[in-house]
Amino acid sequence: MKILITGGxxxxxxxxxxxxxxxxxxxxxxxxxxxxxxxxxLNWLRxxxxxxxxxxxxxxxxxxxxxxxxxxxxxxxxxxxQVAVTTSVxxxxxxxxxxxLGTFNALEAIRQEAPEAVFLYASTNxxxxxxxxxxxxxxxxxxxxxxxEHGIPETYPLDFHSPYGCSKGSGDQYTIDYARIYGLRTVSxxxxxxxxxxxxxxxxxxxxxxxxxxxxMGKTINxxxxxxxxxxxxxxxxxxxxxxxxxxxIEACRGEAINVGGGAQNTLSIWSEFGPMLARLKGEQLPVHxxxxxxxxxxxxxxxxxxxxxxLDWRPKISPEEGIADxxxxxxxxxxxxxxxx
Length: 342
Known about the structure:
342 residues, three-stranded mixed sheet, 12 helices
């Protein structure tokens, strides 16, 4: 197959490209290389693959440039995005143009140039908003849902918070509707806390990698709140398996929104559990500074992934302990990548 990956030099993109190239597919990367680490990721891919890797430097805000690389694609994996809530608040217009307009451009390019292609959109659990009505309680030194034993399902009401939530949510709904109105083979993946090698996490996005990088590089880690917040975490290799399964089962999942995260079996409190795990990996206690809660920071988010299990015959295989050890090892083997990066 020919697989086009927008944002293909990013963390999820380069891991996806590497996997699909190893499977024998041709991969086209469309990326503007604006994110930290993307040039390193692209060079890594070029060292590992040659003939079947094709790179086009472009921006998803440019419809003509994007439409020019779509013809002939069997699969379009749309990952190009502005990824931080804080950045969206500071510059909502740019956030809208990259996330909402960029996704619209991608869908229109598919509709006009490759209507039989499978289109996979990387949405976010932020489409569910603050979920203020969900009861939260404390159990065993961590926060938990009072109900929702399996996590938040796709049927939970959408409530876009922040410019980021609005722009990503817009792309989410356009992706679903283009299957309904135009018959495109689209799927929207509502992703939760993806982590793994080649992730250049920073404080406001990619927190698992950010903590690991800080631990390896001997930097103080800021904890906003009390550290008992809980998230479901998913290793990038498991995410890519969900992408592959969606392509194979597209007639069963076209037009669907599907939660893809660690689910209830792969949760982690951001410091009361993650902190000791990192201390064991490094062999010493880590410097940490507690700061006030940030507005809108959820005590808990756990995705209900049973729909993915049903439609995709998929479930996470890599535990947080195994996956984080893998990420820690990668950072330790590549310290030069983080000398000038937070």
